[in-house]
Amino acid sequence: MTGPHPDIAAVRVAVRRALKPTGRDGLVLVACSGGPDSLALAGAAAFAAPRLGLRVGGVTVDHGLQDGSAERAARVAAALRGLGLHPVETAAVTVDGPGGPEGAARTARYAALDRAAEAHQAAAVLLGHTRDDQAETVLLRLARGSGARSLAGMAARNGRYLRPFLDLDRGTVHRAAALMGLDHWDDPHNADPAYARSRVRGEALPVLERVLGPGIAEALARSAALLRDDADALDAMAAAALERARTADGVDGAELAALPRAVRTRVLRRFAIDAGCPPGALGVRHVTELERLVTDWRGQAHVDLPGGLRGRRAGDGRIGIAR
């Protein structure tokens, strides 16, 4: 008796490894758009989760951005039920707000997934991002001049979210979906040059492969993993440094001045967020100006920060943030 095709085996093993630390007797949800990546994930989870003592359900999000999206979401839900997933939920969302269409859709999608996970008390939500998605993410963030934490890309485990396929290339996952007989939907947005990720996928990465040789996606994903280790270590150092530097109503500027800059800027960012600055609005420019209160103070009255807050330096060198 022969085993499953190597591509099917690869996606099943990846899901099993991701779910193994979850424990038994819980529910995990697969986020499924109906594309080949997430359908392969659903098929692999339907096989692997019960063997670990886990129940597996599914969620498909209808962003309402295209004609017929509700009908398509219903077909995806039916496909998930056909794989034996239960419960299966269709979540309709409204896409608006800051960040452009891609950012707004992402925000709405994760909010819907969070609501579903909480409603069903799911132990984890599985996402179908592949190594190629990771490479695209790294390139997009590199183009924005992001720091090490952003360039570390997507984490395989981030709270309730698990990404079992980050070590698998897109080709392997797509072949697995086809071999499992899963009829997928090709989202036209994935090939629309109006979207930055589509341009990276269809133009930038192929050019890099042609000019620099094959293996670019793998190399970018490997770099992201290395940067994630560095960022984790620096974040841990910054957390400890912040606790040492805290005073009754601020942080000790002398303590911060003695830190390496990579740690100091992380301390100031965390301090600002703890004080009430919205993380998404707190940029490098704000943190740099806060740092100048520590290392280049020339009598500045204050630093304006997101959320209506201001950073100030007291006469004793203490840094405070308040309205």
Automatic annotation (TrEMBL):
Q: Which GO terms describe its cellular component?
A: cytoplasm
Q: What InterPro entries does the annotation carry?
A: Rossmann-like_a/b/a_fold, TilS/TtcA_N, tRNA_Ile_lys_synt, tRNA_Ile_lys_synt_N, tRNA_Ile_lys_synt_subst-bd
The tRNA(Ile)-lysidine synthase substrate-binding domain is annotated at 254-309
Single Gene Ontology BP annotation: tRNA modification
Instruction: Name the SUPFAM superfamilies on file.
Output: Adenine nucleotide alpha hydrolases-like, MesJ substrate recognition domain-like
Q: Which domain of life is it from?
A: Bacteria
**Pfam family, any one:** TilS
* Residue ranges occupied by any tRNA(Ile)-lysidine/2-thiocytidine synthase N-terminal domain in the UniProt entry: 28-202
Subcellular location field: Cytoplasm
The record lists the catalysed reaction(s) as: cytidine(34) in tRNA(Ile2) + L-lysine + ATP = lysidine(34) in tRNA(Ile2) + AMP + diphosphate + H(+)
What does the UniProt keyword field contain? ATP-binding, Cytoplasm, Ligase, Nucleotide-binding, tRNA processing
EC number(s) stated in the UniProt entry for this protein: 6.3.4.19
Q: Which residues bind ATP?
A: 33-38
Q: Which GO terms describe its molecular function?
A: ATP binding; tRNA(Ile)-lysidine synthase activity
Where does it primarily localize?
cytoplasm
Entry-linked NCBIfam families: lysidine_TilS_N
The free-text domain remark for this protein reads: The N-terminal region contains the highly conserved SGGXDS motif, predicted to be a P-loop motif involved in ATP binding.
- Recorded family membership: Belongs to the tRNA(Ile)-lysidine synthase family.
Q: State the protein's purpose.
A: Ligates lysine onto the cytidine present at position 34 of the AUA codon-specific tRNA(Ile) that contains the anticodon CAU, in an ATP-dependent manner. Cytidine is converted to lysidine, thus changing the amino acid specificity of the tRNA from methionine to isoleucine.
Q: What is this protein called?
A: tRNA(Ile)-lysidine synthase
Q: Which organism is it from?
A: Murinocardiopsis flavida
